[in-house]
Amino acid sequence: MEILQLVHGRLATTVALYMAALGVWGLVSYLRGGTLSSNYSGALVIAEALVIVQVIAGVGLFAVGMPIPGSIHYLYGLTAVLVLPFAWSYLRNRDQRQALLIYSLITLFTFGLAIRGILTSF
After folding, report:
1. Which CB contacts under 8 angstroms, 24+ apart, belong to 42-45?
2. Over the stretch 36-71, which tens digit does the pLDDT of each residue have?
């Protein structure tokens, strides 16, 4: 149980830092006139995978009887998992420059969710 708790905590930090980096990368690229690239799209897939692994670790903690940090903690996790796929379904046939901006803002939003999730676990 302690190792799962450690993994969940470290993944939370990883998700927060990775999302912040993606947000800054996307905004800088957008301001320089860029569009959604395959590199950035691949980084978004990695971001979603990180969030999913984070949630799986959290579900594992719940399954072994770890105390519940609060229902808002689960809302942050659920939102973090769903926001990128919903954005993809909305943006897949849109202007790629606009998509880059929206994805950048979403990753910064998810960064905020990760920080709030970390803070609610204390």
Report:
1. 44/84, 44/103, 44/107
2. 999 999 999 999 999 999 999 999 999 998 887 888
Residue 16: CB atoms within 10 Å: 19
The CA angle 79-102-10, to the nearest 5 degrees, is 45
Q: Using an 8 Å Cβ cutoff, are 1 and 66 in contact?
A: yes
Angle of helix 96-120 relative to helix 71-91, nearest 10 degrees, comes to 170
Distances in Å between the alpha carbon of 8 and those of 34, 35, 36, 75, 85? 35, 34, 31, 16, 22
Average pLDDT over residues 82-107: 96
Can you tell me which residue has the tokens 């990180």? 50
The pLDDT value recorded for residue 102 is 97
pTM: 0.93
